[in-house]
Structure prediction request, 192 residues.
Amino acid sequence: MVTGSLERVIGIIAGIMIGSAQIFYLGNTLRRKITPSILSWLGWAFLMGTSVVSQVVSKGWQWSLTSILCSTAGCVIIVLGAVFVRNFSLLARDWIFLILGLGCLGLYYLSKDAWVTTIFAILADGVLGIPTIVKAWKEPASERSVAWILGAGSSVLALSICFGHDMLYALFPIYLVLFNGGMAWLTWVRKV
Prediction:
């Protein structure tokens, strides 16, 4: 088990890493190198935000939540930046992703169960990621960003401070290690 002050330091470093990843992605969006799906990013903000709120209300604050909280804020900023420069995609299927995010909020308010909410958020987040994964599979250069590497590193740090705590806190970081690591592999390592 990691001590309280070490947890805080690792949590802050993880938050800085994911914040940096979001800044890189935002910069790529503002320079029109990447065109984000506006409703996907908004859906991700809802899902991660709901997961953080449900865990804090249910179990209390843990420093492992720092990176997810920073990522939630980053998703909102990416949405606002994309709207500001009018560089975003809005496809019909994206409404499904937004509905999943809102469904997660509704599920939390109805169930008040942090486990159900977090598991649903992970599943919905995975669905939200499908268009991005497909894009990275078909055109790796179109999603190549250091953001995925920083996101994976941030998630590993968040996961490292989950040991000794309720397993609930480890679920989202485990998923984020797999998602970001997979995106980093698809866009940086995999040969097309």
